[in-house]
């Protein structure tokens, strides 16, 4: 019985304490008030303001922004690729004949002209055979002359005379074969270019399988690069592309001279080859090249990239219209390092907001601080 009294007492004390705290809070706030009148219109800062909850008030100060006037300009649709420089011509210089190198007429890294003598193989045995044939040819010519006189007086048969003539022809053919062998002891430049490193020295015995030196033509120079197969029909031989290198960012124009007729099945790409003048010789085979390939040119509106605002439903911009911020949904296209093409949603003459985008909302009053 005593425990029940204690519990009832505690409950009564808690009720009295709660009532006292409620009374104290009422006195601190000035007491409960009631109002049946509507909130005043045009107030600022309260929930009954004209802007509504979370919206800027039309009566607030205008927010300063920078704008850009939308204008049509030429926009180049282009793709970028990487490639490598390759020689215009390249060959390994070898001898057609086997023998000892008698003379070398080249210095490593120097230029040579087409037809210039590069190396000479010892040819004493061939020259001796040619000299022998020349003596035999002199004798055969004399015999033919005597046989001709005898034939004229019918002292010999026509067959005997034909044998003398055939001897002269046979000796001539043998001499021609030796002259070919003699030319094969000379190694000449098949085209103008630059000599690479030598692989042999004077006195070395060479065969047709031994490379004497390499010859490279780098003026003009070629560039090989790959592009995605979807652009295959938009490129043709003769098209101009722009080339730049790691040590020279100034682009140089080159012309496409060939398109590989086969698509790479692994990379799904097409290889192209362009040609570029290299009179200074600064571009070397094997160097890295950046290629800019223009595809087409159109008239479009370009805006700064930072002006575009992505959201769940797509992309939008703010434009300034009659001093207010207006949201405009747009469709974008090509993108450069600093600008973006707007395909749909903007019209020439629109004032695009390009600054303060995080601090403005639709309907907010704006003022122009600068025009780009």
Overview of the structural elements:
- With 372 residues, this protein is of the alpha+beta class.
- Among the domains are: 86 residues, conserved putative lor/sdh protein from methanococcus maripaludis s2 fold (Beta Barrel), CATH 2.40.420; 62 residues, Helix hairpin bin (Helix Hairpins).
- The protein contains three helices and 19 strands.
- A hairpin with a 2-residue loop joins strand 14 and strand 15.
- Helix 2 packs antiparallel against helix 3.
- The two termini are 89 Å apart.
Oligomer state of the chains in this structure: single chain
Spans with pLDDT under 50 lasting ≥5 residues? 29-59
Number of helices: 3
**Structural shape:** elongated
Series of H and E elements = HEEEEEHHEEEEEEEEEEEEEE
**What structural class do helix, strand and pairing data support?**
alpha+beta
CATH class of one domain: Mainly Beta
Q: Level of helix content?
A: 10-25%
C-alpha Rg (nearest Å):
47 Å
Write down the CATH topology of one domain.
Answer: conserved putative lor/sdh protein from methanococcus maripaludis s2 fold
Overall mean confidence score, pLDDT: 86
CATH architecture of one domain: Beta Barrel
Percent of residues in β-strands: 35-45%
Sequence-ordered SSE layout with sheet pairings:
Blueprint: H1 2-28, E1 63-69, E2 72-94, E3 99-104, E4 111-112, E5 117-121, H2 124-152, H3 158-183, E6 186-188, E7 193-198, E8 205-206, E9 211-228, E10 240-245, E11 252-259, E12 269-276, E13 288-304, E14 309-311, E15 314-321, E16 324-335, E17 339-344, E18 351-353, E19 366-371
Write a brief caption for the model.
22% of the residues lie in helices and 40% in strands. By secondary structure, it is of the alpha+beta class.
């Amino acid at each position: 019985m005593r425990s029940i009294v204690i519990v009832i007492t505690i409950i009564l004390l808690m009720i009295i304490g709660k009532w006292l705290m409620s009374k104290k809070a009422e006195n601190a706030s000035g007491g409960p008030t009631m109002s049946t009148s509507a909130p005043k219109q045009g107030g600022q800062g309260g929930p009954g303001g004209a802007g509504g909850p979370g919206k800027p008030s039309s009566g607030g100060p205008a927010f300063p922004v920078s704008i850009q006037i939308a204008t049509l300009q030429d926009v180049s649709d282009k793709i970028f690729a990487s490639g490598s420089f390759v020689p215009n011509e390249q060959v390994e210089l070898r001898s057609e004949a086997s023998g000892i190198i008698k003379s070398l007429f080249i210095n490593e890294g120097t230029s040579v002209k087409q037809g210039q003598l590069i190396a000479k193989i010892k040819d004493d045995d061939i020259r001796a055979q040619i000299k022998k044939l020349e003596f035999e040819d002199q004798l055969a010519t004399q015999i033919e002359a005597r046989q001709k006189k005898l034939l004229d007086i019918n002292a010999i048969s026509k067959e005997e005379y034909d044998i003398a003539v055939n001897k002269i022809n046979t000796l001539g053919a043998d001499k021609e074969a030796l002259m070919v062998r003699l030319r094969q002891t000379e190694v000449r430049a098949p085209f103008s270019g630059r000599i690479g490193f030598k692989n042999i020295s004077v006195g070395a015995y060479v065969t047709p399988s031994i490379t004497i030196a390499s010859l490279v033509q780098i003026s003009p120079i070629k560039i090989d690069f790959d592009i995605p197969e979807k652009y295959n029909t938009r490129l043709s031989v003769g098209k101009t592309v722009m080339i730049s290198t790691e040590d020279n960012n100034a682009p140089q124009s080159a012309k496409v001279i060939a398109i590989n007729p086969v698509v790479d099945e692994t990379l799904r790409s097409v290889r192209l080859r362009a040609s570029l003048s290299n009179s200074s010789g600064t571009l070397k085979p094997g160097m890295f090249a950046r290629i800019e390939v223009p595809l087409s040119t159109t008239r479009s509106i370009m805006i700064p990239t930072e002006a575009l605002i992505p959201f769940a439903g797509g992309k939008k911009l703010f434009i300034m219209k009659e001093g207010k911020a207006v949201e405009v949904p747009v469709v974008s296209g090509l993108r450069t390092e600093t600008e973006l093409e707007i395909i749909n949603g903007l019209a020439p003459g629109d004032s695009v907001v390009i600054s303060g985008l995080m601090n403005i909302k639709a309907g907010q009053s704006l003022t122009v601080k600068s025009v780009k």
